[in-house]
């Protein structure tokens, strides 16, 4: 009895605990509204780009039209979020800067705890509202905070408000945040001419009505770059959680499969126990117990076991939820809000009751047959069929979980082996932030030259470079523009990304040029515009590398002030595709590399790209413990007004990018291992009771000449037959979920023969191992004792 209870409770607790923990994650991250009033009416407004993909940023002209002409929304808010260096009397730090329109008060629906929000009359003024956490950390919770001055982006700024604790907009977890008026004139380089748009629907307007008005309004807007604006209206919550929905639901499905395995295991244990209680049930029937009384007994015992399992499961779920919240809160949106709320407690109890009812079905069927006086031999056969069917189901579900884990592992290995296009060894990445984002372009250009010279002059440094978006840095900037090529019909679909680099880029990153030449010192300011292109550019637009070298590339700039991009650039070299944190596992886009020195210091493009978050890379053989302090010292001497965002080894940054997929592999693999253990226990239990029930049959076989090896083969055949049926059912059940799995796979497929064969062989071996004990006991049965016992 104690062994039966322990195994039954643990079987349910593991599946129920994992499912409850994942329900808590899904509830907290995907379902629970943000801690803002009326979040169900907050909508994110986006537009499809030239490739039909929703683009998060909206140009200022479109935003002005939306704010002026829409009637379905109470307020249309624009914001841009960027790192912001601040300096107070307490400390200097880079915080989250949110440049937003003054109607943020209408959209967020939250008033400051101290002071006020800024209004239209504050636009252009140096005022800011700070988060409660910033108030605590950088102002020591000074009660006289209102009216105090601090430096924001190098400018004196007045605090006019402090938000309540826990408030965060547009994010989901409170950080050190500063809110200040957005520059809607476009002159502020930190705003880049585009904004993110969030709107609050009127209470009387539903989402469909709002979208119809939005579509009618945008249909009258002028065509931009030959593309007609197509609006996309998304719930604001979905823009925060991003791509988390699919993997979280997939993990919840995996946990549900584990719960089903736990239910099947508990049902098998109860069936086995009911076999041993035949005499007890017969006695109860003889004493007058009716069918309802016997069913009530079985159901009560099953529900008691399941509720005890639920108690253990809640403990498991609480520990798991706490672990996920503490470890991953800074990596994934809303993970810091993961808690097991009362609704999840209720869901756990409901699942426990359902599990108890499912587990009670098997013994209830057996009891009813026993009460109808079915023969002993028939009872054994039917009972064995039911128990065997449950084991087959367990093995099928285990097969699906292990296949999923195996395919995700293959994908993870494929991602690790994807050619990066550069050498991350001995490479260190630096992301900086100018303390004054509005400083003169000439000063920014001088800072870059000083930093590069200082880095290259450091002992132990082989080379140093800068780029608008260094691969695997934590800050990505992208400029995509239309292009025109000789001999090719002009199309708005012909686009390429532009990246500004320094002359030592290839040497520092360890990139080998494939054709043509590298950028040279002579390719600087005042010289003819030249560029490098990547392999993706060649594959999409050109096929002959020889004729491509020297060909003119014309940019169709959307910004008339960028005179340099109105001329053609000559292609002088082809380099491999460079993989970054945004591209890993995805198709590489065509990319053009230009020496930043070719852009005058007064260029708006150079000011924007290099004035927000300068990024550098250094190749050095020095150990990190020696290199990092030397880098900080050199940066302080060369550009004292630059704030450090991050210094990290390239290899570490790459590993961080793969953490999400690694977590999926670990979680799915853990669920698969638990399922394998439960299925093994279930198979072992069925085979053990099968030996007990077939004692007379085995005795007769051995009495008429069967040798012991044949008896072992009999039990082994039973185990492998159930495993084979389980594999067949698992393969058939795998196809309906293949579409879900494909979204997570790279470099492999759902029908990968190596993974399928490996998991099938593993299950067959485990089945044989589970059969070893019962088979040995069956072979040791003495014929005379077996027949005498009958």
Q: What are the SSEs and their pairings?
A:
Elements: H1 2-31, E1 42-48, E2 54-55, E3 58-59, H2 60-69, E4 73-87, E5 92-100, H3 104-108, E6 114-115, E7 127-130, H4 132-138, E8 149-152, E9 155-162, E10 177-181, E11 194-201, H5 207-219, E12 231-235, H6 236-241, H7 245-276, H8 278-286, H9 291-328, H10 342-371, H11 376-416, E13 427-434, H12 441-456, E14 461-466, E15 479-484, E16 495-501, H13 505-509, E17 515-516, E18 530-534, H14 535-541, H15 545-548, E19 552-556, E20 568-575, E21 591-595, H16 604-612, E22 615-620, H17 624-638, E23 642-649, H18 650-657, H19 659-693, H20 695-703, H21 708-734, H22 738-742, H23 753-779, H24 783-789
Helix pairs in contact: 1-7, 1-9, 1-10, 7-10, 7-11, 7-19, 9-10, 10-11, 11-19, 11-21, 11-23, 12-16, 12-17, 19-23, 20-24, 21-23
């Amino acid at each position: 009895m104690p062994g039966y209870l322990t195994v039954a409770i643990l079987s349910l607790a593991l599946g129920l605990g994992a499912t409850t923990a994942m329900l808590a994650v899904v509830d907290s991250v995907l379902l629970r509204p943000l801690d803002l009033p009326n979040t169900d009416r907050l909508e994110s407004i986006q537009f499809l780009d030239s490739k039909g993909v929703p683009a998060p940023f909206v140009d200022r002209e479109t935003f002005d039209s939306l704010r002026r002409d829409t009637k379905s929304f109470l307020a249309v808010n624009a914001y841009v979020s960027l790192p912001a260096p601040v300096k107070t009397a307490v400390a200097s730090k880079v915080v989250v800067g949110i440049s937003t329109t003054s109607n943020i008060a209408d959209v967020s629906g939250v008033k400051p705890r101290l002071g006020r929000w800024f209004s239209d009359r504050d636009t252009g003024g140096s005022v800011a509202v700070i988060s409660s956490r910033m108030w605590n950390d950088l102002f020591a919770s000074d009660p006289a905070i209102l009216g105090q001055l601090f430096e924001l982006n190098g400018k004196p700024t007045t605090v006019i408000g402090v938000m309540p604790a826990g408030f965060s907009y547009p994010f989901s977890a409170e950080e050190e945040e500063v809110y200040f008026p957005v520059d809607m004139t476009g002159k502020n380089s930190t705003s880049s001419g585009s904004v993110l748009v969030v709107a609050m629907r009127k209470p009387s307007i539903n989402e469909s009505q709002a979208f119809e008005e939005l579509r009618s309004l945008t249909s009258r807007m002028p065509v931009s770059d030959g593309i007609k604006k197509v609006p996309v209206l998304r719930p604001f919550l979905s823009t925060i959680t991003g791509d988390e929905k699919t993997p979280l639901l997939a993990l919840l499905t995996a946990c549900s499969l584990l719960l089903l395995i736990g239910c099947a295991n508990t049902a098998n244990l109860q069936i086995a126990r009911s076999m041993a209680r035949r005499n007890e049930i017969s006695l109860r029937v003889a004493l007058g117990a009716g069918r309802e009384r016997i069913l009530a007994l079985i159901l009560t015992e099953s529900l008691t076991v399941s509720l005890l399992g639920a108690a253990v499961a809640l403990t498991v779920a609480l520990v798991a939820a706490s672990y996920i919240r503490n470890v991953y809160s800074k990596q994934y949106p809303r993970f810091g809000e993961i808690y097991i709320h009362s609704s999840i407690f209720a869901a756990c109890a409901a699942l426990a009751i359902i599990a108890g009812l499912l587990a009670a079905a098997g013994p209830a069927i057996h009891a009813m047959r026993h009460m109808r006086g079915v023969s002993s031999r028939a009872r054994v056969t039917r009972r064995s069929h039911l128990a065997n069917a449950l084991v087959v189901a367990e093995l099928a579900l285990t097969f699906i979980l292990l296949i999923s884990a195996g395919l995700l592992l293959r994908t993870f290995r494929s991602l690790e082996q994807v050619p990066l296009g550069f050498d991350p060894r001995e490479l260190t990445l630096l992301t900086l932030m100018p303390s004054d984002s509005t400083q003169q372009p000439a000063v920014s250009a001088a800072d870059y030259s000083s930093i590069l010279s200082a880095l290259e002059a450091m002992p132990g440094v082989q080379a140093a470079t800068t780029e608008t978006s260094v691969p695997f840095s934590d800050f990505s900037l992208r400029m995509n523009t239309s292009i025109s090529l000789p001999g090719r019909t002009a199309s708005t679909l012909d686009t390429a990304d532009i990246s500004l680099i320094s002359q030592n880029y290839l040497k520092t990153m360890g990139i080998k040029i494939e054709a043509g030449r590298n950028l040279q010192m002579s390719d600087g300011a005042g010289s003819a515009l030249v560029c490098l292109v990547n392999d993706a550019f060649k594959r999409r637009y050109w096929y002959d590398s020889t004729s491509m070298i020297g060909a003119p590339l014309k940019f169709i700039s959307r910004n008339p002030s960028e005179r340099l991009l109105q001329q053609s650039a000559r292609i002088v070299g082809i380099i491999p595709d460079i993989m970054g944190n945004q591209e890993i596992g995805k198709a590489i886009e065509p990319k053009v590399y230009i020496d930043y020195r070719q852009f005058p210091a007064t260029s708006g493009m150079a000011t924007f790209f290099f004035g927000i978050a300068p990024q550098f890379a250094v190749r050095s053989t020095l150990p990190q413990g020696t290199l990092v302090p030397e880098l900080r010292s050199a940066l302080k001497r060369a550009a004292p007004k630059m704030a450090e965002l991050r210094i990290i080894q390239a290899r570490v940054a790459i590993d961080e990018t793969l953490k999400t997929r690694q977590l999926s592999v670990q979680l799915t693999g853990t669920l698969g291992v638990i399922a394998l253990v439960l299925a093994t226990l279930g198979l072992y239990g069925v085979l053990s009771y099968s030996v007990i029930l077939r004692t007379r049959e085995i005795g007769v076989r051995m009495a008429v000449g069967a040798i012991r090896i044949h008896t072992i083969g009999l039990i082994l055949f039973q185990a492998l037959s159930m495993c084979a049926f389980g594999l067949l059912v698992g393969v058939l059940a795998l196809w309906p979920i293949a579409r879900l799995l494909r979204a997570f796979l790279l470099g492999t497929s759902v029908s990968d023969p190596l993974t399928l064969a490996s998991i099938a062989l593993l299950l067959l071996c485990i089945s044989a191992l589970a059969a070893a004990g019962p088979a040995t006991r069956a072979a040791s049965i003495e014929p005379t004792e077996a027949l005498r016992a009958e």
